[in-house]
Amino acid sequence: MGLHSDEATHYAARQREFWLESLAPKEARDSKNVLQWLEKVGAKKVVIHLDLDVLDPKELYAAVGNTGQMSIEQVSQIIQDVAQKYDVVGLSIAEHLPQVQIKLKRLLQGLPLVKEN
Question: What phi and psi, each to the nearest 5 degrees, are found at residue 93?
């Protein structure tokens, strides 16, 4: 869910090869279409792959080429709704770039007023 523009074009062949469906951001505004698809395919267990590129960079710029259109609230709600109806057996997160956090931690560790417990 959340594929759009160049991403949707880029993954189209792979989706056909593996019989995967996708939802554009407009189709994934809530959980309805995702839950309908899971029911249609007879899912019992779900593995979720959260690529942070799906997030709107105005809300959270967290990935390479982050051009997403979905809010944190939307993504969180959909995952929660799926987890209420299905056994989520795995969750991966892709495109997280912790460079800023790592550099900030190094900076703060070097300051005389910040001490780690």
Answer: -125, 125
Residue pLDDT tens, the chain, 117 long: 777 666 677 778 888 898 887 888 788 888 999 999 899 989 999 999 888 888 888 888 776 666 788 899 999 999 999 999 999 999 998 877 777 778 888 888 878 875 566
> Taken in order 78, 5, 50, 64, is the CA torsion positive or negative?
negative
User: Which residue, among 6, 8, 1, 102, has the nearest Cα to 54 in the 3D structure?
Assistant: 1
Please report which residue ranges of 19-71 form alpha helices under DSSP H: 32-40
Q: What whole-number distance in Å separates Cα of residue 10 and Cα of residue 4?
A: 10
Q: pTM of this prediction?
A: 0.74
Closest CA to 1 of 47, 46, 49, 44: 49
